[in-house]
Amino acid sequence: STYDGMDSYDQYEPSIAVDSSDYLHVVWDSLATGYTDYYQIWYAKYTTSWVTPVRISTYDGMDSYDQYEPSIAVDSSDYLHVVWHGKATGYTDYNKLWYAKYTASWVAPTCLQATGENQWPNARWSRYPACNIPTDRVDYVFTEGTASPFNIYFDYYLPPGWTGKISGVTNPAKIMGVDVANIAKVKGVPSA
Question: How confident is the model at residue 114, as a pLDDT?
């Protein structure tokens, strides 16, 4: 990380994705010069060298709250999709899920789940799909709740937009489109 002052702070919770040109895309949370009180979400790309990190947690007021747990995915058009959790102006009761997309530049973050407390998102897109994962959609899973037991939810982006959270994830393999008959081919996963 080469953003001014980052070398004085710990870097946390990295997530990496690879595009069709085999370039690396990394997101993480960290403090830096100008952002020394609250963790922000940062992005950097590697082609032949690392570019200077940029802050993508730019929604109004995000610099006054911690932003955590970024997860990145690259779709079939090499667009970047990042989800994370944190607070911002107008969303201060609990952590919310946030989403930012990069096509030619970073689009301002949007709140994906505005009610309740939403944490630990995980974005996924499969460049070389295993099982029967669609190649033209990005999906994510997350937990929601203010006290244990937390619930798992699922949502996916299929142009032109997000479908809305799906609750009651009791069979994640089925809801995420995994071919259960072939699940034994995935190392470490017992057959159904």
Answer: 81
DSSP string, 14-47: EEEEE-TT--EEEEEEEEETTEEEEEEEEEEEES
| 152, two tokens | 């798992």
Contact present, 86 and 142 (Cβ < 8 Å): no
Rounded distance, CA 84 to CA 103, Å? 18
pTM score of the predicted model? 0.75
CA separation, residue 18 to residues 40, 42, 55, 141 (Å): 22, 17, 19, 20
- Position with higher pLDDT, 58 vs 151: 58
- pLDDT at position 135, please? 53
Cα separation, 48 vs 4, in Å, equals: 21
Q: How far apart are CA 182 and CA 13, in angstroms?
A: 31
Rounded Cα distance, 67 and 29, in Å:
7
Average pLDDT, the chain: 77
pLDDT in tens, 79-99: 898 989 999 999 999 889 899
Q: Domains in the chain, ordered, with CATH?
A: 6-185 (2.120.10.10)
